[in-house]
Amino acid sequence: MLSVLHQKHWKLTVPLICLLPCLFGCGSGSSESTTEPPIPEAEPVNTTGSGTHEPQQTAAGVKEFDGIQFEVPAGWKQVPLSPAQQGMISASFQIPEAGDGVKLTLSSVGGGVEANLDRWRGQFQLPPGEKPIQKTIRVDGVETIWLDLRGTFDTGPALQGAAESGMRMIGVAIPRSPRDFYLKLTGPREQLLKAESEFEAFLKSARFKQ
Known about the structure:
The chain has four helices and twelve strands, in the order ααββββββαβββββαβ.
């Protein structure tokens, strides 16, 4: 009797054992169909831009600063403003083709044109016999003042810079309302000479928005 029951139990158990592998995935085809596809990875974020402190290449074209449009030459690099410049400077450029020391800043400030020109004169100690060169350039119907200074440049404690000899500054004051606009090109004399003509073309490209 026990032998008969044992045979019946075995006959029922064997099919169940054979079915178990199929229930949980038989062969490579079943396992592939039940596996979820991998989650696609996000593309890397481009970290180059105005948030970095690396110079950014500025393509040639019209750019507007404080309501004045300029034709920016190819090769000029607009750089992010330092914490000390923010709130005072509208834009800052480097001109690598002229030299690493050539810098241009654009700003709109109050106080009057003559007071700001005097401040620039006070930043330079001119060699004996050297005098500031001042002239008037008409830009888009507006008389602008061009001031050329050469000698030892002292930025003063506000900018935490040391006095440097053999320097040059070309500063341009544009009378505007409610605040005048200023362009300040600085660098070693021999380097600034290479940038002078391109800077003057940049100035004369200015167009004032009504």
